[in-house]
Amino acid sequence: MKLDEVNRRRVAQLMRLLDSDKDGEAIAAVRGVARALGRCGAKWADIAQMFEAHSQSHQQSHERRRDAPRDDVRSVVAHCIEHMDAVCTDWECEFLESVAEQLDDGRMMSPKQLGVIEKIKRKVDQYLRYSA
């Protein structure tokens, strides 16, 4: 399924109308989404498949972060700390130092902490790519 930008915006607008307490508006929104999908050769089943694929991708990402070996996390954190003065906010610097202490104490990172570490790593790596 290939929704162009115009149809994607239109579908998003129409889907918000599904919350309407007026049955006529909600039904018109459903029909409008169906028309927008039809214009690009898609069906409701394609929308369902998109949600399933996103859910599966999100679950796999969560499992990868949860199962990340502590040494790998430690090396990523060390990498970020090495370059943090050039690119990180004060909060990110304090976060990285706190994470390093927690890892030294043998604690595991939560999925949320791992997500923040990944975000900071991308920021550091982007800085290194463009400053080289």
What does this structure look like?
The chain has 132 residues and is an all-alpha fold. Helix content is 80%, strand content 0%. It has helices spanning 5-16, 23-39, 44-66, 70-87, 90-104, 111-131. Helix 1 runs antiparallel to helix 2 and helix 4 runs antiparallel to helix 5. The model has no long low-confidence stretch (mean pLDDT 83).
Secondary-structure topology with pairs:
Layout: H1 5-16, H2 23-39, H3 44-66, H4 70-87, H5 90-104, H6 111-131
Helix pairs in contact: 1-2, 4-5, 4-6
Count of DSSP helices? 6
H-E string: HHHHHH
Uncertain segments of ≥5 residues (pLDDT<50)? Answer: none
Portion in beta strands? under 5%
Multimeric status of the protein: single chain
Task: List its traits.
132 residues, mainly alpha, 6 helices
What does this entry show, briefly?
The protein is an all-alpha fold and 132 residues long. The chain is built from six helices and no strands. The mean pLDDT is 83.
